[in-house]
Backbone:
């Protein structure tokens, strides 16, 4: 989906969700797997994700919306789109 569509989709989900008693932030990320991994790798140490910054990582201007948690057991990802 386009970035604009992803923003609209995210606005319906909200900034955070609870999934299986785990709080997750809702973020927009590149849909291309390599772009997605690069974006996560560059930002997960600080757990600092910005939807506008995700645009810089996308090689094809295609995005998805995910829920992401930073649990002790590791990252958990919920794919919405």
Residues:
């Amino acid at each position: 989906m386009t970035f604009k569509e992803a923003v609209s989709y995210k606005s319906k989900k909200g900034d955070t969700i609870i999934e299986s008693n785990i709080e997750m932030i809702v973020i927009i990320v590149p849909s291309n797997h390599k772009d997605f991994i690069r974006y996560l790798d560059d930002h997960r140490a600080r757990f600092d994700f910005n939807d506008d910054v995700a645009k810089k990582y996308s090689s094809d201007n295609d995005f998805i919306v995910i829920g992401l948690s930073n649990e002790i057991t590791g990252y958990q990802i919920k794919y919405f789109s």
In short: The chain has one domain: 3-79. The beta strands are 16-19, 22-30, 63-71, 74-79.
